[in-house]
Amino acid sequence: MTTTLTPDICVIGAGSGGLSVAAAAAAFGVDVVLVERGKMGGDCLNYGCVPSKALIAAARHAQAMRDGTPLGIGAVEPEIDFEAVHRHVHEAIAAIAPNDSAERFNALGVHVIRAEGQFRDLQTLVAGDIEIQARYFVLATGSSPFVPPIPGLDKSDYLTNETIFDLTARPEHLIIIGGGAIGMELAQAYKRLGSMVTVIEIATALGKEDPELAAIVLKQIRDEGVVIHERTEITRIVQHGLGSVQLSLKSGDGSETIEGTHLLVAAGRVPNLRGMGLDKAGVVHGEWGLQVDSRLRTSNRRIYAVGDATGLQQYTHAANYHAGLVVRSILFRLPARERRNIVPRVTFTEPELAHIGLTEAEATKAYKSIRVARWPYAENDRARTEHRTHGHIKVIASPRGRILGVSIVGAQAGELIGVWALALSKNLTLRDVASYVPPYPTLGEIGKRAAVAYFTPMARKPLVRRLVNLLRKFD
Ligand SMILES: Cc1cc2nc3c(=O)[nH]c(=O)nc-3n(C[C@H](O)[C@H](O)[C@H](O)COP(=O)(O)OP(=O)(O)OC[C@H]3O[C@@H](n4cnc5c(N)ncnc54)[C@H](O)[C@@H]3O)c2cc1C
Ligand SMILES: NC(=O)c1ccc[n+]([C@@H]2O[C@H](COP(=O)([O-])OP(=O)(O)OC[C@H]3O[C@@H](n4cnc5c(N)ncnc54)[C@H](O)[C@@H]3O)[C@@H](O)[C@H]2O)c1
Fold it and tell me: Pfam families under this entry (predicted)?
């Protein structure tokens, strides 16, 4: 027998974006249904941020044992118990899982339905034997790994982010297709945990980042022993039984064949939109995302979209930000405008690479005149005390000090970008950053120093000097 529900809001997908919408709406007493076909918590908790950052933490610890010498601690080669590392990764997931569980959400007042959702018409979603006719729907269905059409790949035993964290034994030689965020984070982590790692990138590794800063990360990862082939096409893949895979490569340098034990596909993401009946719901979409307006409404004004499904910025904090905008729009009818320049991104390699706003290349295209200020970690006292002097901050600003973009490569870059995210979201200027007081000695001082460096040339201007000279006379 079919049951029909008529909530105010029906959210499809219980990942970062969907959970945020459901929790916020329920907190305001709104009737919410949440439909999830897989694991509660979505990609971030189960196959993304959480397992990758737990693995990276183990790998960082292993590397610290090899790298203690400059601090007076003898270097040792760590003994890596891969099964225990696997346990640590899954314990991290298990520790966070209760926050995202159906029990918790039911207790918050959200009606959780564990089934796949599919639109039947403009206002009805079917999930198992339940029909949902909501006033508003929110598509929060996330994304899946993009599997490139490489001959032989479909016949090989490849891993993706959905399966790699299940390995209980160390891969002997891991070959990674794609040198983006997933590829480079995991390449460094597996190398540090004792695997041989080769990355094959068809274009440029970390190609979305400022090349000046990306080069610093790539050099470090290469120095640690990861082999990275850039501008290289994979022409064929052949699986030779279990644990042996062969890739034929073609690049400007010619052709070669490489062999590994495991293959990871990390070649980008495709939004989960297929099979959802979006045409029946009047939602205009393509393979790479949905058409949404600035308040994240699709072409059906009763259906919103958040997170990876939009094909916009694919980060957990972006999904949470989208959720806030949608709740504001649906519950309070307040104007909401998605602003991409206030969403930071961080690649959690070592050194970390963090960015917000425009890169130098993007700013040069968009503005007539820009100025760039840099400050190196090597000039920071805390970095010196810890031998973490590798890297710098780069601030892109307008001639009047409007902040257009910031990139940081170095220790704790992901933490340091926070203050810039606040500055951009509140339209603060470099003058504001130059005048705040960071505690000493902290890595955070590099941000203020970069802002001060931006104004330093002004102190040398004859007009400014003449003014200072004039004011001295009034003492
Ligand atoms: C390896 C890796 C590392 C990452 N690291 C980071 C990081 O460090 N920081 C960061 O910010 N981001 C990171 N990300 C990205 C982050 O995981 C995603 O941006 C985030 O999970 C997107 O949230 P979402 O709610 O849009 O989708 P998801 O979290 O994927 O949730 C979507 C949910 O919808 C469900 N669903 C799909 N279709 C249907 C349907 N028809 N019916 C019912 N349910 C459905 C799915 O089962 C899923 O649970 C990482 C991603 C990966 C793969
Ligand atoms: N720290 C983080 O916040 C974090 C970490 C991991 C993932 N993510 C999110 O997940 C998304 C997906 O990550 P990703 O690394 O899969 O995607 P990506 O888009 O960052 O990188 C994919 C790379 O694969 C390359 N590629 C595509 N086809 C290829 C082929 N046939 N052969 C070789 N290389 C090929 C692309 O040129 C690109 O460099 C990221 O863009 C990001 O939004 C975020």
Answer: Pyr_redox_2, Pyr_redox_dim
